[in-house]
Amino acid sequence: MKRWVVFSLLALTLVATSWAQSLPRFDITLYGGYGLTSLKGISDYGDSWNHYSLTNVTESAAIDAKSKAGIFFGGGFGYYFTPNIGIGLNFGYIKGKVDTTSAAKFGWTWNDGRSFNKTSDFVGTDNSIQSMVLSLNLIGRFGGERLQGLVQAGPTMFFNKVMLDSAFLYGVSQITWIIYPWYYSQNVDALTIPIELNQSWTGFGVDFGAGLTYWFTPSLGLTLDARYFFCPKKTFDWSIFTGKYNGTFYTNITNITFDETDIDWMNENAETPLTTIDVNPSFFQFGIGFKIRLY
Question: Which one, out of 138, 141, 261, 295, has a CA that is 20 to 30 A from the CA of 43?
């Protein structure tokens, strides 16, 4: 009886070993597809002041950035310890367009009661967020000879870059003395101040997903891959451009210097200094491509 047990175990071991060795231990995957990016950030600016005949001046801006879907390219190399368990080194690249808008408002009231309100919308040009990812995944595969599925998850390194531009309105008042100190004329307008975000950074996160492969031949298959890449969001300050600017709504105020002193004043005294913006580089990708087995 014991001999039959030993013989049966030996036979099963040989069959399992033969089956495992007959399956490919290596595969290479290349694919492309669609990626859904996750950037959605909002910045605000606001202030109010008075000057001579101006009893109240208000300026504000709501800057909104929201990313859109982009093209994703990726691939990977897999090695399997057993017929069902392996590890994979995967890479990918995505670039998505970002819609950036600024809804800016400017209003003022004279001491005789007259009041005016102006608005200006600014739309960013050629804004984008892009990520290159490198991940090391634990892979589980299952299925038959023709149709196989897999699940995978693991740590991921992100190489991110974001490029945004927008603007806000900064009010100014200009006094021209006719007879000092009794008579003067006063003009008011808002300068259009451009801002920019151009940052690159490395982040660490995770990815997890699933795939399905149909094998045309023992060595070549069509593969579908869906995966979510998570990377913690990062907060950035806008870069504010200094220079000489003209009034936005009228022609009376020209060649006004806006420099670091004005930026410092905004940061210290504005009711709502230009706030930071959160950038989320996480994304979901869906791809289709080819998988090649290497024996």
Answer: 261
